[in-house]
Amino acid sequence: MAATGGFVETDNAEAIITRIEHKSRKIESLLKQSKPVEALKTALEGSPPMTRDERCKSANWIVVHRAIMAIKDVDGLLSSLDAEYYDILMKYLYRGLSTGDRPTCDQCLRIHEKLTERAGLGCILRSLADTVNAV
Amino acid sequence: MCLQNFPCQEVERHNKPEVELKTSPELLLNPVLICRNEAEKCLIETSINSLRISLKVKQADELENILTKKFLRFLSMRAEAFQVLRRKPVQGYDISFLITNYHYEDMQKHKLIDFIVQFMEDIEKEISELKMSVNTRGRLVATEFLKQFI
Predict the structure, then answer these.
(1) Which ipTM did the prediction report?
(2) What per-residue confidence (pLDDT) applies to B133?
(3) pTM > 0.90
(4) At what angle are helices A102-119 and A84-97 packed, to 10 degrees?
(5) Which residue of A has its CA nearest to B32?
(6) Which of B54, B57, B45 minimizes the C-alpha distance to B96?
(7) Domains along chain A?
């Protein structure tokens, strides 16, 4: 099962990267229209699941990072986001916290606090325990 | 924080903290790195029977660098007394804690967490106090010494 997974990925890595680039252009245009909430939703929606390829993950991270930094209204974001994206967002927040870059960390901590209130401790635990879908 | 006893899978009758060895990936969780800013970091690694917390303390200048190193080395040498302290900090960090399931059985969970938080606050206070006392002493000594040249 792992072997077939591997085969699928090498074919799809390029496809995923082109899809991510496509997505980033859409997100740039959404950000220009001052719709950061929509941008973040789009960024999280296309997150490639079960990819081992570091390039796909980094490419997706750059896109999500852009969207996260543009968010000003955290409460509005969380009320409009579906519950299934809470886990993905939490994983990206932890990735952001590990970067060490001051503004990123500040923004991530702010969103993290609100997201924990909303999603509870289970969300954090799932981001810790999920080694298959690591972001 | 959820730790349970887990005898070693590779060697019979051995019981090792899995987070230190990292031999079986299925026993480990994703490590979490939280950075307050470029200078301060906290790395939390967990496994089924142990948890390792590594901290990097903020060091603004050379003097604080030396003080931090000496002070934390002093504490790490006496790690036996603290029980949850690790004798050597993880590479790239200033101090590390290793909490195993045995500690968990003996001590209360929230007390352990309070201890670590308290420890972090106390370290910062201690280091700034040490720095101030070093500066004061230096100034006094220099004044006394240079008085003879007036």
Answers:
(1) 0.72
(2) 93
(3) no
(4) 150
(5) A94
(6) B54
(7) 35-129 (1.25.40.190)
Q: State yes or no: pLDDT of B63 exceeds 50.
A: yes
pLDDT tens figures, B73-129: 998 888 888 888 888 888 888 899 998 888 888 888 888 889 888 988 888 898 889
- pLDDT band at A3, cuts 50/70/90? very low
Q: Mark yes or no for CB contact A101/B38 under 8 Å.
A: yes
As given in the structure block, the two tokens for residue A8 are 């699928």
Give tens-digit pLDDT for A43-92: 777 766 666 677 777 878 888 888 888 888 788 888 888 777 888 888 88
Contacts with B28 from chain A: Cβ below 8 Å: 131
Size of interface A-B (CB pairs under 8 A): 37
**Is B37 part of the contact surface with chain A (CB cutoff 8 Å)?**
yes
Put simply, whether B92 touches A (Cβ < 8 Å) is: no
Among candidates A105, A127, A131 on the partner chain, residue whose Cβ is nearest the Cβ of B35: A105
Q: Which domains does chain B have, with CATH numbers?
A: 18-147 (3.30.1460.20)
Beta carbons of A129 and B30 less than 8 Å apart: yes
A93 CB neighbours in chain B (<8 A) are: none
Q: What is the 3-state secondary structure (H, E, C) of chain B?
A: CCCCCCCCCCCCCCCCCHHHHCCCHHHECCCEEEECCCCCEEEEEEECCEEEEEEECCCCCHHHHHHHHHHHHHHHHCHHHHCCECCCCCCCCCEEEEEEHHHHHHCCHHHHHHHHHHHHHHHHHHHHHHHHHHHHHHHHHHHHHHHCCC
